[in-house]
TrEMBL record:
Location of the Response regulatory domain: 3-118
Species the sequence originates in: Microbispora maris
Lineage of source species: Bacteria, Bacillati, Actinomycetota, Actinomycetes, Streptosporangiales
Entry keyword DNA-binding: yes
SUPFAM superfamilies xrefs: C-terminal effector domain of the bipartite response regulators, CheY-like
PROSITE patterns linked to this entry: HTH_LUXR_2, RESPONSE_REGULATORY
Protein name: Response regulator transcription factor
Keyword Phosphoprotein belongs to the record: yes
Length: 210
């Protein structure tokens, strides 16, 4: 029997998903309501598949996925989320997720995705697959731009930070509020895995962004 760990901060959705999986002969061995607990559950139980939401309090699903794969490279993670934008999809893929499915998927589609990811196959829901096709058919390559896990706005901020500008100067240059700049800087730190402005600057320059 396939085993699974569910990581989602919505208890009603998590309970419904658990019932669905049990009907599909998938044993739910653990549930977690945030990314931090999800990492622990995945590493403690080593299931065939981890079903992971993206937007959760504390540690988000992409960060949790990266941490799971860092500690357990053979883990199979299926993102099951409401988030469908390109930034989230590519961030999840870069973190090591094998599958990406939207929560509006039907039971049969979820069952097929779980079976495929548990077997080590990559699988994407129809909506995500269409976005991937559109992205690549437009001639945009994932590796063509530095730090594809960052949004365009975050890359703009990082480029100016790497040039030595403080938050106030960045805000003035981009016609943003300082609060928005601070939020983007925090997002950059999280996505690049750095703790200080100096580390972010070094990574940006090494990546050719400066």
């Amino acid at each position: 029997m396939t085993t699974a760990v569910l990581v989602d901060d919505h208890p009603v959705f998590r309970r419904g998903l658990a019932v669905l999986l049990e009907e599909l002969d998938v044993a739910v061995v653990a549930e977690a309501a945030d990314g931090e607990a999800g990492v622990r559950a995945a590493l403690d139980h080593r299931p065939d598949v981890v079903l992971m939401d993206i937007q959760m309090p504390g540690t988000d699903g992409v960060t949790a996925t990266r941490r799971i794969l860092d500690a357990w490279p053979d883990a199979h993670v299926l993102m099951l989320t409401m988030v469908a934008d390109d930034e989230a999809v590519f961030a999840a893929i870069r973190a090591g997720a094998l599958g990406y499915l939207l929560k509006g998927a039907g039971g049969a589609e979820i069952g097929r995705a779980v079976a495929a990811v548990a077997a080590g196959e990559a699988v994407y829901g129809p909506h995500v697959a269409r976005r991937l096709r559109a992205f690549f058919s437009a001639g945009a390559a994932l590796a063509a731009q530095p730090f594809p896990e960052l949004s365009d706005g975050e890359r703009q901020v990082l480029r100016l930070v790497a040039a030595g500008l403080g938050n106030q100067a960045v805000a003035q240059r981009l016609h943003l509020s300082e609060k928005t700049v601070r939020n983007r800087v925090s997002g950059i730190f999280a996505k690049l895995g750095v703790a200080t402005r100096a580390e972010a600057i070094v990574k940006a320059r090494e990546g050719g962004l400066a």
